[in-house]
Amino acid sequence: MSPIKASSRALIAIAGLAGAAGVALAAAASHAGGEALLRPASMICLVHAPAILALAALQDRLRLATVSAWLLVVGTLLFAGDLVSRHFVGSGLFAMAAPTGGMTLIAGWLVGTIGALLPQKSA
C-alpha cells in the first residue's frame, strides 16, 4: 500500500474540519438563532466536506481532482466564512466575499466534471 500524499492528507484534514464546522453551525443556528446566515453556512460546509474528501481520495486517478478540491476548499471558506462573519461580527469578510465563494464553488464542481470526462491518469 502506498503512503498518502501530503496534499491528500491536507485535503482530508480540511474536509474533517469542514464537516465539524457544518455540524457546529447547524447546532448554533438551531439553538442560538441565526437561521438566516448560519443555516446556509452549515449546509455549504456539510455538502462540500464529503466532496473534498472524495476528491482527495481520487487524486491519483482523476485528472484535475486536486484543482477541483482546492477550489471547493476556497469557495467553502469564502462563502460560509462570509455568512458566519456577518452573523457574529456584523460585517462580511470583504465586499463580494460570498458571491466570490459561490462562483469558486461552481468552478470547483465544473473542474471536477471536466476532470471526470478526461482520460484516467495512468498508474
UniProtKB/TrEMBL annotation:
InterPro entries per the UniProt record, alphabetical: DUF423
Secretion signal, residue range per the UniProt entry: 1-26
Keywords: Membrane, Signal, Transmembrane, Transmembrane helix
Official protein name in the record: DUF423 domain-containing protein
Transmembrane segments: 36-57, 64-81, 93-118
Domain of life: Bacteria
Keyword Transit peptide: no
Organism field: Peteryoungia desertarenae
